[in-house]
Amino acid sequence: MVKSVSIRIEEEMLEKLGYVADYEGRSINSHVLVLIRESIKGFEEEHGRIEGAVSPDENVKPPRKG
Q1: C-alpha dihedral over 41, 51, 63, 9, to 10 degrees?
Q2: 28-47 and 11-23 are packed helices; what angle lies between their axes, rounded to 10 degrees?
Q3: From CA 41, how far away is CA 55, in angstroms rounded?
Q4: Using one digit for the tens of pLDDT, what is the confidence trace for 3-16?
Q5: Checking phi first, is residue 5 left (phi over 0); if not, alpha (psi -120 to 50) or beta?
Q6: How many whole angstroms separate alpha carbon 49 and alpha carbon 22?
Q7: How many C-alpha atoms does 65 have within 13 Å on its Cβ side?
Q8: Taking phi first (over 0 means left), then psi (-120 to 50 degrees means alpha), and beta for anything else, what does residue 35 get?
Q9: pTM higher than 0.70, yes or no?
């Protein structure tokens, strides 16, 4: 199941995030997912695996709305 979240972010930070995402060839949403995966992976490497079915190594994309 894919869930949506919203965050509050300063406009300048969002613009910079968009710049980095574009440079990496991603949307802001996809780039944020990459950053989240990296954060979880780093945490698990240091502290051990967090219980759950989805590995941070998996590139899970939400299904397209059709």
Answers
A1: -60
A2: 90
A3: 8
A4: 899 999 999 999 99
A5: beta
A6: 31
A7: 1
A8: alpha
A9: yes
